[in-house]
Amino acid sequence: MRRHVPPTAALQAFEACARHLSVSRAAEELRLTQSAVSRQLAGLEAMLGLRLFQRVRQRLVLTPAGAAYAPRVRTTLARLEGATRDLLAHRGAGGTLNIAVSPTFGTRWLVPCLPSFRAAYPGVIVNFMNYTTRLTPLDFAAEDVDAAIMLSEDAVPGVIRHRLMRDARLPVCAPAIAARLHGPADLAREVLIQQTTRPRGWVDWLDQVGAEGVDGLRGPLMQHTAMVAAACVAGLGVALLPRFLVRREIEEGLLATPFEQPLHGDAAYCLAYPEAAEDIPALRAFRDWIKNQALDA
């Protein structure tokens, strides 16, 4: 039986044109001539019996059919490329995992722990992709990600989550600032560094400890945890940070914790992956390993 599977070259040409909306830019990316790309598009449209593009003022515009087809082709090509890369990387033994993780969590906690994983599973290759906080759920298939480590509060249908460690944040600052903090009310005289991932963190913490007369919303706003930690080390203010992400600075005397009351909440760092990926041997190995590592965090 003949299958309705277009040639890979035609799909690559279509995907590049759909992304750039330009035959010339697609040709440059694919290292082909414009006429070669145009022939691939024409052949694909003839095979499908559908127009995928229209030309409007010498510019490509996706038709409704093309707009629906493009993301699915992009996902399929990405997965095919990933499977090929996986095969070539370990010659069929072990496995390859693509893990999305925030740079701060990766550099400050995960990567320093990885030698023990490599020693236990030398045949598994772990690739890391940048994960940032987003408004919409991560599309594991579209972004070619096997699992993600994320700060999460809510369950997502079809996604398995394993809690690793609570997002228990407590005030941290340079030792010189900590020396003049005798109670939470003293924070009224200090700069409170705000973080975009927990915009009401200080307000909630001050309310939790019963501190009055302190404006929990004032202070500079920063996005990345690593930048917030660096600002604290530089003596720029006091911030709420998880202890495990600044453990090195605390042990080295670069940061101090003037108050030991952590900010309570349901948020936690979790390992998340699609239900369909649960039986992947390399992912099971990584899951068991990281859960064990998190016990000591």
From TrEMBL:
Gene Ontology biological-process entries: DNA-templated transcription
All copies of domain HTH lysR-type, residue ranges: 6-63
PANTHER family assigned: GLYCINE CLEAVAGE SYSTEM TRANSCRIPTIONAL ACTIVATOR, HTH-TYPE TRANSCRIPTIONAL REGULATOR
Family: Belongs to the LysR transcriptional regulatory family.
UniProt keyword annotation of Cytoplasm present: no
Domain of life: Bacteria
Keyword Ribonucleoprotein included in the entry's annotation: no
Keywords: DNA-binding, Transcription, Transcription regulation
Protein name from the UniProt record: LysR family transcriptional regulator
Organism per entry: Teichococcus oryzae
Any one GO molecular-function label of the UniProt entry: DNA-binding transcription factor activity
UniProt-listed InterPro entries: LysR-type_TF_proteobact-type, LysR_HTH_N, LysR_subst-bd, WH-like_DNA-bd_sf, WH_DNA-bd_sf
Pfam families: HTH_1, LysR_substrate
